[in-house]
Amino acid sequence: MNGTTTAATLAAVREATAVLTGVVERFAETDFTRPSLLPGWTRGHVVTHLARNADALVNLLTWARTGIEHAAYPSRADRDADIADGASRLGQIQREDLIAACDRFMVEATRLGHEDWAARVQHPSGDPIVAARIPQMRLFEVWTHLVDLDADVGFDAVPNGHLDLVLDRALLPHLNRTDGHPLRLTVSLPDGSERSWELAIAPDGGSEVSGPAAAALTWLTGRGKPADLVGPIPDLGPWG
């Protein structure tokens, strides 16, 4: 995680959560039923997903702290049903649910000791991860779905101190791909620095893509191909 400490990542989660709850607290009742940027999902679906994701990560944090297995979700079907059911509730209930779930995540995270963060748990995908990855996972979820709420918050709102963590998480599904030709991605950060990666995701050889961090995040998360990205840009499926 670029040397970022768990405490620093949790501080970033707290900051991002404050932005999220501030946006949702301004929603009128009818705002929850408006379309989000995710096909087939209203804003209520996104808000409920963020609440249930927080609870899923609480399960993993509890697993790390106690050593007793707590799966993130009982099943994918249960997860999807919870989101669909939750999105049908009154907006005020969805808002209170989100705030409570975010609070539960932060409370449980503060209960973990140094050794707990090294414990291995199981990601919902089935892959093993160390618990220290969980705060970064939550940070990515909060910022990505804040954008999906279509409430005038884009990836350009991600603070400089959060960008490396969010970029690293967005890149994760693409780092070990071998199904394409090499593509060099160069991202410009707001402080004037750059980061670059070699990704085997190009349909043709000799590709290079470059642009600002916000545009790169939009593309890497499958949310479109911004005009300020330069180069032959492959299609990437949505995730997160």
Structural class: alpha+beta
For the record, what is the CATH homologous superfamily label of the largest domain?
A: dinb family like domain
Which stretches are low in confidence, meaning pLDDT under 50 for 5 or more residues running?
Answer: none
The second-level CATH architecture of the largest domain is Up-down Bundle
Stated plainly, the CATH topology of the largest domain is called Four Helix Bundle (Hemerythrin (Met), subunit A)
Strand content: 5-15%
Instruction: Please work out how many helical segments DSSP would assign.
Output: 7
What is the molecular shape?
A: globular
Order of helices and strands: HHHHEEHHEEEH
Could you give the count of β-strands?
Answer: 5
Instruction: Summarize the amount of helix as a percent range.
Output: 40-55%
- Kindly report the spatial arrangement of strands forming the biggest sheet: 4-3-5
* CATH class identity of the largest domain: Mainly Alpha
Radius of gyration: 18 Å
- If you average the pLDDT, what whole number results? 94
- Largest sheet, if any? 3 strands, mixed
Counted up, domains total 2
Quaternary form: single chain
Give the termini distance in whole angstroms: 18 Å
Keywords: Isomerase
Protein name: Maleylpyruvate isomerase family mycothiol-dependent enzyme
InterPro entries: DinB/YfiT-like (IPR034660), Maleyloyr_isom (IPR017517), MDMPI_metal-binding (IPR024344), SCP2_sterol-bd_dom_sf (IPR036527)
Domain Mycothiol-dependent maleylpyruvate isomerase metal-binding: 13-149
